[in-house]
Amino acid sequence: MITSIGFSAGKEIKAESNISFLRIFRAFEAIVYTEIITLIIMKRLHSLLFATMIFTSANAQKLPVVQEVSIYAPANVKIEGKVAEWGKLQAYNKGRGLHYTIANDNSNLYLILQTDDVDALAKITNRGIKFSINSEGKKNDEGAISFIYPFFDIDNRPYISFKNKIKIDSNLPKTLSDADSVMRVVNKRINDRAKFIKVFGLPAIDTMLSVYNDTGIAAAQLFDNAMVYSYEIAIPLKLLKRVFNTVQTFNYHVTIPGLSLDDFASVKYGANGMPLSITARSAAGAALPAKDQMAATFAATDFWGEYTLAK
Hints:
The longest helix is centred in the N-terminal third of the chain and has 52 residues, at 9-60. The protein is built from five helices and 13 strands. It folds into two domains: 1-61; 65-252, no CATH class. A hairpin with a 5-residue loop joins strand 11 and strand 12 (275-279). A six-stranded antiparallel sheet has the order 7-6-5-4-10-13. Strands 1-2-3-9-8 form a five-stranded antiparallel sheet. The chain has helices spanning 9-60, 118-127, 173-193, 241-244, 291-298; strands spanning 91-93, 98-104, 108-115, 129-134, 145-151, 196-200, 208-210, 218-223, 229-236, 249-256, 266-269, 275-279, 301-308. Helices cover 31% and strands 25% of the residues.
């Protein structure tokens, strides 16, 4: 019973009625608020799962292994490690686990790449991606213009394990927040250590070029919370005059170098000469690949293609 000192009985009843209504209203408000938050979380989960389905479904689509068409880049491209603006990527190299697109506009040449392949990710986050351009009409990197990004110093590599990815469940919102947390940590880790683009074949450009430069060369990388890796690089065409002065068609070579035992601080070998354990050069640690993955992890991943500039 609500008591009210100094009020008549009628006023007490009215006050009690108002307070009861307010409590009911606040309870209803809390329920509605909770439902709205739940709907927002569920909507985000379904959007994420839909985006992941689009990425994985491309594996089953009949995309060419090597890009077959010229692509004019969308307007107002931003190099930020997010590839949504490029739409469906143009080729899927199943043997390498890589989706990619090569494109151009009047100012830049672009390479966009995406993968969730564990072996490819282990190599990229240690040795980076090398993109080479050659107008000689041969599958040969000699004399090519090349860019390595991300480039990690051997003593400052991220050493990220991709063995136990968080599985996002639309019925368990906590899996989304956990995946978001891992994504933020991993992105900070790789980008804190990838401060340079290594450049070959452009004498006027520093070999070790800061990612913050005034040459127009731009590169970015990001993981999403499903641990799908996206990579973008833009190279001004004016820097590639040596390639495009006489031709509009060129060969390109994308390489993800394999890991080497030299990449690690120490290696312990078994009686059969095979490595049993390795120690990373950083405090982060590194895991020796499983026996069935060792060959793939230590072997380079690469592919060649030919591209004609889009008009």
